[in-house]
Amino acid sequence: MNAPLPVHLLPEIAQRDTPAALIDALKTRFAAQCSTALVVREQHGRDESSFAAPPPAAVVFAESTQDVADAVKLASQHNVPVIPFGVGTSLEGHLLAVQGGISIDVSRMNQVLHINAEDLTVTVQPGVTRKQLNEAIKSTGLFFPIDPGADATLGGMSATRASGTNAVRYGTMRENVLALEVVTASGEVIRTGTRAKKSSAGYDLTRLMVGSEGTLGVITEVTVRLYPLPEAISAAVCFFPSIEAAVRTTIEVIQLGVPIARVELIDHNTVRMVNAHSKLTLREEPMLLMEFHGSPSGVKEQAELVQELASSHGGQAFEWASTPEERTRLWAARHNAYFAAIQSRPGCRAISTDTCVPISRLADCLLASVAEVDASGLPYFLVGHVGDGNFHFGYLIDPDDAREREVAEGLNHQLVSRALALEGTCTGEHGVGLHKMDFLLTEAGDGAVEMMRTIKRALDPKNIMNPGKIFSL
Ligand SMILES: Cc1cc2nc3c(=O)[nH]c(=O)nc-3n(C[C@H](O)[C@H](O)[C@H](O)COP(=O)(O)OP(=O)(O)OC[C@H]3O[C@@H](n4cnc5c(N)ncnc54)[C@H](O)[C@@H]3O)c2cc1C
């Protein structure tokens, strides 16, 4: 049994009634595609956050856009909340049924619909995961670069405006989603955007939906950009005498405009956890894991320049991942850092942070935060998409210890406040969900949040789409 969260951190639970008539109607329309089994509801009513709420009243496993539209229409008739569900890897309480309602799971909508290799675009159903997409297009010589640590769905990634290790070169979901099909809060099916690379046609509804966290509609199709697989790829690790030296190197790399494809910071502590988990023998020092994409000569040039910058900050000679297998092993280890950390303290829970600051402020923000968490005595991991100014601490707390929770939440609060003071954001890629609602208000201000509320009220007058998330109404 987890220790209760401190009162000021508890989410507002205001369950609305889910009438038996709605459950009957869903069972009639969806038969075995609708479940009210407790274990299924519980699996859809939680995520990796430390919050808890009663599970949704039912889960509909949609298999088509029509299924989604029919489920939303039935919920709307009964004023019952609808929570879209991808694969449930979000981290900030996005999926919790704080106002009750039903979950619409779109993971069975997992077809890659149209690969337009000549235009470098692909259209998929929302339940396709990033790894599934790359597998489906591998014979085309193209790839999809956005890679959150978990194998998330394209629908969920669009809804959270996700990114990952490649964002420094290829951007986030914001830059890479071209068009969407969406079921609105009234159950109508609309399309936003086209496959054209750019457009000046009216309000940009695609970008309104990207990052809306299921609060404006259910995404039922996603068209994204693809990229040619680079002619040459080189990955290298470089070890530094301090986190500061690694961060200063990164800042210079970005400020000089080196088109580096990936530059990830892993602190010495986390390298130790990764070594134990992934059976590696990396030196247990602050490290940058980097990747260069381009022509063979371009890659060589970039690597030489970065090597020079690194050694001016005390970075030790690069260790190259010479084979694709070795490269894949290193990046898999990076992506598994979260699980490596959890394994390092059996029974623990990780409270993840996600700030992002302008690159020139990265050292100030990161170093002060490291000093703070070191002083707290809490075990933690630290990884960062530092080329974007984005980094994550994971505070590894004993979930039964209320004091540790309070300390972790306090550290997160101080970190976010520092990032905002440095003109950064409370969330670089995970989204607001429940956890960051107060921070969004501080970051965006009353006027901007009120404009978001006005949009929400206009598009979802009954407030049924994932209510109680991003901001209170
Ligand atoms: C180990 C680990 C590492 C991670 N690393 C990263 C990272 O590097 N970068 C990053 O950005 N994130 C990261 N995340 C967070 C998470 O993977 C992303 O937020 C991801 O985009 C969520 O996708 P999902 O399919 O799991 O969505 P879910 O968790 O199922 O849903 C997320 C939100 O999107 C909404 N939603 C889902 N599908 C739809 C849809 N079809 N239409 C409308 N709304 C929808 C939900 O209602 C919810 O609000 C990580 C998570 C874990 C556990």
Q: Tell me, briefly, the overall form.
A: globular
Strand fraction equals 15-25%
Secondary-structure class: alpha+beta
Oligomeric form: single chain
The total count of strands amounts to: 19
Helix content: 25-40%
| Tally of helical segments | 17
Query: Average pLDDT value?
Result: 95
> Which regions are unreliable across 5 or more consecutive residues at pLDDT < 50?
none
**Largest beta-sheet characterization:** 8 strands, antiparallel
Task: List the ligand species.
Answer: flavin-adenine dinucleotide
What distance lies between the first and last C-alpha atoms, to the nearest angstrom? 32 Å
Q: What gyration radius follows from the Cα positions, in whole Å?
A: 22 Å
Furnish the topology, listing elements before pairings.
Layout: H1 20-30, E1 34-35, H2 38-44, E2 58-61, H3 65-77, E3 82-85, E4 102-105, E5 112-116, E6 121-124, H4 130-136, E7 142-143, H5 154-160, H6 167-170, H7 173-176, E8 177-184, E9 189-192, H8 205-209, E10 217-225, E11 227-228, E12 232-239, H9 243-255, E13 262-266, H10 268-278, E14 287-294, H11 296-312, E15 319-321, H12 324-335, H13 337-344, E16 349-352, E17 355-356, H14 362-376, E18 380-385, E19 390-397, H15 402-421, H16 437-444, H17 446-459
Parallel strand pairs: 2-4, 3-4
Antiparallel strand pairs: 1-2, 5-6, 6-10, 7-11, 8-9, 8-10, 12-14, 12-15, 13-14, 13-18, 16-19, 17-19, 18-19
The structure holds flavin-adenine dinucleotide.
